[in-house]
Every structure is written in structure tokens, then in C-alpha cells.
Amino acid sequence: MPPFMKENEEPQLPREPGMPTPVAVPTPTVWGSARANSPVDGWIQKLEKDDPAFKSLYVMSFRTIESADFIRLCAAIGKSKFLEEFHTGRELVENDLDALSQCLSVNSSLKILSVGNKNFGADGMERIFPGLAKNTSLRILDLENKGLGDRGMEHLARLFESTADIQIESMKLGCNGFTDIGASALLKALSSNTSITSIDMHGNAFGSADTGAALGAWLAFKECALQSLNLSTTEGLSEDFVVKVAQEGLARNTSLTRLNLNECAVGDAGVTALAEALADNKSVSSLFLDGCSITAVGASQLQALLTANTQIKELIIRNNAIHEEGFNAICSALRTNTTLDVLECGGCGVSRVAQIGSETSITHLGLFNNGLGDAGIASILYAVEANNKTSLNSLVSLDVSGNEISDDGFRSFCERIGADLELLPALTTLEIGGNKADDKEAWVSVCEALEKTRPGIRVIWGDGHKY
């Protein structure tokens, strides 16, 4: 898959549900392992010695640690000058939470915190509230899948209302079961916040017009610093919500760069509002609208957006029924748009590519699972030739996987780009897996022949084959 689809890909280390994937750092990271002896004494020793190399501590839920040991560990973390990350997926009882709160109230080194499991809940949030309210070092608060609910979100809102000293920059609040009550409480508390740059609220159940207005008010705040907003897979998110956010917030916001509304009921009305709000926007560069119930009507609004906007670099609209009409409307905007870099229209019912602007500078075009067939993949090259072979000159990656392309269709496509180096001259990756490939040996021969004339192209097809 193209690079932008790997936004959540990190080094593959064991992790608990709701815990962040640890990012590889050049300093030692200590994990709670399955050794017979408790590692707590060793961790405390490192903390008490102020080992400057000891910056990250992960305590996994499968590690059996007595509450008394966890309380001792929290006391040591409270005094640490160098520990920057603390993650634990173990279930925390009241005494653990109180110790953690005390730890947070005095520690000045922690920057990243992820604690508890799905049973952490509103009670857990309430008990660590005093410590969080006094802490000024935390920058990332990961509370994903912690069972917060509306009451837990209200405690979090109270945190931001109670003090101006909070310096948290990123919050992960996905999959916490909160509704408009909790979402609205937090967003209203953040209405004049200047520190949050990233917030992830995916997989919850909110989306009323009133909550949209609360989010819009924060986005419209002239000192709003929010850069990344993830509302994907939000059950109940309505077109009215999107319209409010767009009209009351995005139209005036200058900080947001990434907006993810994947699998939300944005609809054509929501897309229309987004397109109008972002037409003159100078900050949003990535727009994710997978599975948003957009039709060719909404695609025409995206055409207008791309014609006017000079900032958007990624437009991801997979699994929307825009069909050939909508896709070609978007492509028509590429006659003048020179800033779009990635266009993903997989699963959109596109059967033929009719036109692609000669001025386009896109480097990735995704058309997987569209049922293109042999005629559809051939139409890509016909569209390029129709513009005197000046279209898609910057295209580096083309994904036509899962399109019912036959042996003959694949051979014809490869022979054409192999014989004419002016067709897709920058192409280095051709993803074509999941097609018919009845004769695998024939596909291998085609790849080998292409490699001789276009040695810079890597073909990726079924069974992970790469050439």
C-alpha cells in the first residue's frame, strides 16, 4: 500500500489495547518482561540513581506486580529527573491511582503518559485528576480505550477548566464510549486552548450540530494551535455536525493541517460545506474522507475545491460511490491544480479514466478495487496520450490492485509503458495484486521483460511477488 496508508505503522513491539505503539528511540527502553523475579527493584534503582539513559518504562499487563510495588515505583518516578515516558496496561486499583496522582503532582520529567486498561474509566480519571492538575511537563496523554464514558470526559474537561498551566499537546481519546455530552464538555473547555496540537477522538458516539458548533468555536479561536484532528469511525456524526465545523471553524482556522473523517456520515452536504470552507484555506494539507457516503454530486464539490485550493496535498476518498463521473470531475481539476500529491479513489466504482490534467503533479494514484478490467487500465494510458503524454509525468506509484485485470490486459499495459518511455516516465511502483493472474508464469515473463526496458519500476502483485 502507498506510504500515506501507513500512518499508524510503528516498530512491532508487544502492546496492550489502547496503549500507543512505542516509537523507536536511541535511548534505552525498559519493558516489564516475564522473568520470575520482579523487575521493580531494578527500575527503582535506575530511577533513584537518576540514570540519564533510562527514559522510557513500559509495564505490560501480563507482568504481575503487587500494588505495594507499583506504589513504590510511582514514588520513584515522582523524583525522577530523566524518565520521559511511562506506559502501563495493568489494571489499577484505588491505591495505585492515588500513588500515580501523587507522582504526577511532583514529577517534572514525564512527557508521555499512558496508564490503565478499559476498566480505568471515569473513576480512574477522577482519582488522578489532582496530580494532572499540578503537572506541567506532560505533552502526550494517551487515554485511548480506557472506558472513560461521558463522566470521564467531564473530568478531563474540568482539568482544562481548572488551570491554565496544563501544557498537554496531544490527546488520544479514541474508543472511549462517550457521546455528545462528553465530547461537548471537553470541546467547550478547549475553546481558548493554545497548547493542543493533536487530538484523536475516533470511534466514539457523538456528532450533533451543537457539538459541531463547540468544535467550530475552538477552531475559530485565533490562537488555536490544533494541527491534527481525527474523528474517524464516529458513530452518529451527522452532516449537520460537519456543516457547523466547516462554516463556524474551518473557514477561519489557520492551524489545522490534517483532518480525518473516515467512515463518518459526511454526505454530499457535508462535503459541500467542507469544500466551501477550505477553498481559501492555507493550512489543511491532508483530507481523509474514506467511506463517507459521497456521490458524484459531492465529487463535483471536491473538483471545485481542488480548482481553488493550493494547499491540499493528500485527498483520500476510498469507498465512496462517486463512479466514473465523480472521479473524472476531480481529475478535471488537475488541469490547473499543481499541489495535489496523493489521490486515493479505491473502491469508488471507477470503470474508466477519461481525462487527467496535464499540469498535475500527483505522485501516487490509487485505483484499487474499482473493477477497471483490461479496458479500464488501458484507459489510463489513453488519457495520458490525449494530453500529448504530459499527464502523470510525476507519478511515482500507481495502485490498480483488485481490478479484474487479465493476463492479456497486464501484458498490454506493461508492453506499452515499456516501449514508450514518455508514458508515466517517473513510475517506480506498480501495484497490481489481486487481479486474475491465471497464468503466473506469463506474469513473471511480463515483469522480466518490463525490467529490461524500465529497470526502475518495481511491480508488486499476488503472493507478495515483487519485481
Description:
With 467 residues, the chain is an alpha/beta fold. It folds into three domains: 122 residues, Leucine-rich repeat, LRR (right-handed beta-alpha superhelix); 146 residues, Alpha-Beta Horseshoe (Leucine-rich repeat, LRR (right-handed beta-alpha superhelix)), CATH 3.80.10; 127 residues, Alpha-Beta Horseshoe (Leucine-rich repeat, LRR (right-handed beta-alpha superhelix)). It has a 17-stranded mixed β-sheet, with no helix packed on it. α1 runs parallel beside α2 and α4 runs parallel beside α5. It comes from Sphaeroforma arctica JP610. GO terms for molecular function: GTPase activator activity; small GTPase binding. One of its GO terms (biological process) is nucleocytoplasmic transport. This is RNI-like protein. InterPro entries: Leu-rich_rpt, LRR_dom_sf, RanGap.
In total, the number of domains comes to 3
- The CATH first-level class of the largest domain comes to Alpha Beta
Helix content: 25-40%
**Backbone shape:** globular
Distance between the termini: 16 Å
Q: Tell me the structural class.
A: alpha/beta
Tell me the CATH superfamily of the largest domain. Ribonuclease Inhibitor
Mean pLDDT rating: 90
CATH-assigned fold name of the largest domain: Leucine-rich repeat, LRR (right-handed beta-alpha superhelix)
Query: Describe the biggest sheet?
Result: 17 strands, mixed
Low-confidence stretches: 1-27, 32-36
The CATH architecture term of the largest domain is Alpha-Beta Horseshoe
Radius of gyration: 26 Å
Q: Tally the helices.
A: 14
Q: Kindly state the number of beta strands.
A: 17
What share of the residues does DSSP label as strand, in percent? 5-15%
Protein name: RNI-like protein
Biased composition (Basic and acidic residues): 1-13
GO biological process, one term: nucleocytoplasmic transport
GO molecular function: GTPase activator activity; small GTPase binding
